[in-house]
Amino acid sequence: MIIQNKREKSYLFDIIAILITLTALFGYINYRFIKLPTTIGIMLISILMSLSMVTLGHMGSIGFGIEKKWIEVVLKIDFNKTLMVGMLSFLLFAGALHVDLNELRNRKWEVLALSTVGVILSTLLVAGMTYLLSGYIGLGLNFVYCLLFGALISPTDPISVLWILKRAGAPKSLETLIAGESLFNDGIGVVVFITIWEVAFGPKDISLGGVFVLFAKEVMGGTLIGLSTGWVAYKLLKSIDNYQVEILITLSLVMGGYALASEVSFSGPITIVVAGLLIGNHGRQFAMSAKTRQNVDMFWELIDEILNSLLFVLIGMELLIIQLSAKYIFAGIVAIIIVLLSRVVSIGAPQLMFAIGKKIDYASLKIMTWGGLRGGIAVALALSLQQGAERDVIITMTYTVVVFSILVQGVTVKNLVRAL
């Protein structure tokens, strides 16, 4: 038993070592030769490496079995748990830490509408069009799986969006709106996904009232835990002036808050976003000295950069376990159009509602549509589905949308912001 545990720990260390080494290597290659934004360049190199492994696999003995060994490594990595349990809380907190709460408060109803009505409307639109597509090309997807695909692909990924916004130079008010929407609609999207899953595959039938209760429990519970744990951390930070200990307090808030929310079946992402907004605004202003503030910012910026880079390497590596059939890839390409059309409607409807009596800001609508990136969270949720043909289709469609989103939209959104 002791020997087995040592082997498992050693293998875990080996996996982490491989990922860190590849991330550093890809980052270096990108910085020296490709010169794309860091995480986008890293993901592109990771995808090219995965495609090279697939090519080696088709070369038989010439490839020396490298592709099979590499697939074994990828299969050992539980992407869903790595992101949703390991990375997500840190990345959300790092993103929320620098969102201006006063600016967010000024646009709170727009953010609320976009992150709730927008996500639900997009889920339904994507599900409906995906169901039609499925019937047209003979995929035979059950409507429940179309709803699950709609739920996982509709929320914009805060990890990708916040990274791009930092470098795009968007107006502050628009940046706050997009950042606030992406931080909250991520949590709402996960809740919608879980709710659909519980209704369709749960152990008992759930009424419409039960769906509402489940949804409200996740959202309200996550908000409550985020406020409570954030307030405790704020009081602790305010009572001392030692940046090493204060960084530890923020770490414990992120890990402990997420674990507590998950334990009581509340939304962990919403918990961390709320706590991050509290510490990032009131905590930074009233509970930290200038020296502490500088060190806390540097620490979380470094965490953000490292984990983002690791995540994009993992996304590239996941290509090795995607079913690359022509029909699935075609469905993925059409899904890109479906997702973009649904994005236009789902953010356009709330904006029309708030623009009554005022001129519609079409430039912002275009930026929010094209800047609504999808990322690792969508892939993680797709990989969490149970084994079957439906899972293979959804994973391929999700992966295609995510790769297009990051490599095409992510690279060009900066130019779009400047042009508009």
Structural description of this entry:
The model has no long low-confidence stretch (mean pLDDT 87). The chain is globular and about 65 Å long. The relative contact order is 0.15. The chain contains 18 helices and no strands. It has helices at residues 2-34, 38-58, 66-76, 79-96, 101-106, 108-115, 117-137, 143-153, 158-168, 172-201, 208-238, 243-263, 268-286, 290-317, 326-354, 362-370, 376-383, 389-419. Helices cover 82% and strands 0% of the residues. The protein folds into two domains: 2-76, no CATH class; 79-419, Na+/H+ antiporter like fold (Up-down Bundle), CATH 1.20.1530. It is mainly alpha-helical and 420 residues long. The longest helix has 33 residues, at 2-34.
| CATH fold topology of the largest domain | Na+/H+ antiporter like fold
Shape: globular
Main β-sheet: number of strands, strand sense, barrel status?
Answer: none
For this structure, what is the CATH class of the largest domain?
Mainly Alpha
Helical amount among residues, as a percent range? over 70%
Number of helices: 18
- Distance between termini? 63 Å
Strand content: under 5%
Overall residue-averaged pLDDT value: 87
Briefly note the structural class of the backbone. mainly alpha
Give unreliable regions as ranges: none
User: How many domains comprise the coordinates?
Assistant: 2
Give the SSE order as H and E letters.
HHHHHHHHHHHHHHHHHH
CATH architecture of the largest domain: Up-down Bundle
Give the strand tally: 0
Computed over alpha carbons, the radius of gyration is: 21 Å
